[in-house]
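Lest this sound abstract, we let one protein speak, letters for residues, whole numbers for local backbone shapes, and leave readers to judge:
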Amino acid sequence: MPMLFGNRSITTSSTVLATRNLVTGEPNINGEFAVNATCRDIVISQRDPLPLETLSKENSDVFNKINNIAKTLEKYFKKPQIIDYIYENGEVYVIQSNNAQLTAPGRFRAAKDMVDSGIITKAESLNNFEPADVAQLLAPSLTNAEPTPFCKGIPSGKACVVGKVCLTNESVLEAAKKGESPIFFKKSIASTDFEALMASSAVVTNIGTDYSFVSAVTRLFRKTAAIGCEGLIVDLENNVVKCGSNTLNVGDKVTVTGTGSVLVDEQELFNPEKHEDEFAKEVLTWADEVRQDKINVFTIADTSSEVQKAVEIGSDGVGTLSLEPFFEGDDRRFVTDVIDPTNEEGVNSFETHLTSKLKEIFSSIGSKAITIRLFDPELTSYLDKPMELAKEIGVLRAQKDRDGDNFASQEELDSKIAELDSMKKAHRANPAIGSRSIRLLVARPELMNAELKSILNAAKEARGSGADPHTRILIPYVSDYREVSNLMKQFEALSLEIGEKAKIGIEIDTPRACLTTAKLAELTDFLIFSVPLLTNVTFALDRTEAEKQLLETYKEKKLLTNVYNGVQASVSELMKICVQEAKQTKTECEIGLFSEEFHNPKVISHYSELGINSFICKAPAVPVARLCAAKTLIESQ
């Protein structure tokens, strides 16, 4: 028969404690104790334990002993601990000690304190974090003030979650399979509920403490929860949940917050653009110290507010700023003006508009690097539909025939005829592989000249106003070095004329560019891979269309997984060839990469091993990428 510590006599007491507050991470022991009970009784809530503060008053000697042991074990294991103790006949026995699972804010607070105390180094601390810890900093939050909760418990994950009430394991699994968001309400959670717990979007229980199974699991997997909600009754017979005078039915919408509150109905949520956790900010500065001058993390941006956000969230600058957003809505006319041969002021209006927009951008970036991506889409996306334009021309010609010499709209007719001619020349059946990007600029030198001139003038004007932009220009969709050579001649002449410099880079989007990098690297300062675009061309797919049906069909037939997730061997091999050729040609050539996979440290590690030292991602992923980049460097040392 196994020996059970803790119930030998009425004077024996058991204690379960954490070396830190599991919610906030504060450095003071927290726990519960019970007389004539086992530690397991406390964990599974079979006994009503007393708070550890009571033990400190009733038996200070025992309290001081376990407090000293707790500090010793935390220093030894270098992580916050949950420890089971038994006090018997004047002696304290340690039954077990395990790594504690804290909330995301608690992890950052504990890390800062443990580094300051010399228990662990900054590098060791960073290695203890997972990407999900950082991702939770920007998790969905309540838009408005929190209303009176239906019930409230101990929190776990930081995200606010909206879903429907489910009371059984089967209903949770069924709802999750349908793509719904099940909120699992149960009196208590045991290990047999693990599958349903993991399938749920959030968990709400009546029984549970900081030290129970459900707390450990939900915090381990960063899952939102409200644990140990006082007064919560789960009525399986009537398919309802009660708390006080309030009742919820199965299927009702609820919102579970990151503070452990359960709110009736679907509450409005928003994704914060930046976090205010001071401890997390400091931890991420440690990550920046590790990757400084080794790995850069940039973000993409389209507006001056997004550029400002890039600075605030700790990116090293803007890795890609596209010009297309500056020509939306009524501003589309600037594009049609610049290619209209009858519009002599078209180029000037285009340059004035773009220079104004970019000056605002350069003024927002401070002294960080910013990469302007040249015009990418086909012109047809900016021109009116051919049929509509042809009808308008037909109407004007009919009016001309009717009015003869009195026709007053000849200028408008000529302009529309010229626009239709331009459209016919620009039209392609496949816009994904048509006259776009560098090909468009070669065919339309007036557009290329206007873009380059606007960028340089904007940078010069911003510099004159006190800014210090580090300007980089990115040429997308290059497949031949002669395309770049043609643009470089125009750029160098303009740079000399305007008196403003910028670095020139190439976006590697095609297999041919990967295989001819040696010549491309000679002409440019940096290279950037666009993993989604390179994957498109390598697999001859269009992502938008492929993910709607084709890839799902291939997955069902076990022919191909989603090629846009993770690292694809064929795409990676092309990149490897490209990097090797670039480094052989120009050892100091900076090589960057845009991807949506930087939440995974293994992805950054893989690309770093290829020789890529700059990573570009969307703004919400920047904090995660900063951590992952640092972890990659630490693990490689």
